[in-house]
Amino acid sequence: MADDNIHYTLGTIKEAAAQLWQRVQHYRIIAFNGDMGAGKTTFIHALCEHIGVTDNVSSPTYALINEYHFPQKAGGTGIIYHMDWYRLKDAEEAVNAGIEDCLLQQNAICFVEWPDVAMQLLPHPYAWADINILSPTEREMSIKFI
Questions:
Q1: Before 71, cis peptide (omega within 30)?
Q2: Which domain holds residue 20?
């Protein structure tokens, strides 16, 4: 699958989330990279809404991991682990926090903010989404499949 870009604003973020999901829905791990204030959590909120999450979606900066649930097409409930690695020092601290256990659950989807802290823990294959700030109201997401 080729790399891809999605251009969006806050007004079109729901459409952008639908476009991203169309491209990454077969990946369990989606890593979101971008500067502070780029809108990683805001985008993940829109993505979770698109998928059908009814839980409160919020930043896991202090909790490290939030767990959400969504209805699966085949029935039953799916799990999303929303992780924020910003406060972690390195991969060892991530493992000690139980992050590796979440990443390795074959029946769960993981959205990871600040993945560069412990990239070596990301199991292949995964999708990498770089959010770039174009202006105060515009973003461009470049997507790579690794």
A1: no
A2: 4-145
